[in-house]
Amino acid sequence: HFFETTVMCSGKLGNYNHHWFHLDGSLDKLHCDVLATFNFENYTITLPTKQKMVLLPNFRIILESDCAKFLTPSLIAKLGIISFASIISWKTILHSWLERQNENESSEWHSIFDKYLP
Q1: 12-38: per-residue pLDDT in tens?
Q2: CA-based nearest residue to 16, from 58, 78, 51, 76
Q3: What's the whole-model pTM score?
């Protein structure tokens, strides 16, 4: 409910300056699923209740998290991740994502990444 309330209140702040929201904490699967629904063409995001919310173009979110377990490669690209702590490598995130895929897909992706990104 916090995210929904924050987004709704941002509409009342005006369209003139950027509005930054800094969220610090773990990104669980639900958070990642919601963030993955963001549509850049019309600035909409779909909440778990299936309600679509329109974000203002000047609305910015900074997420700070110590957990990358539920991130997918496409979500990392969409979020524009800037940096990770030195203990988390891109391979760690990749392997975490591959573990959640079905066995055939995981095997195919492993062979592609092993071949082109040793």
Answers
A1: 666 666 777 777 777 788 888 888 888
A2: 58
A3: 0.55
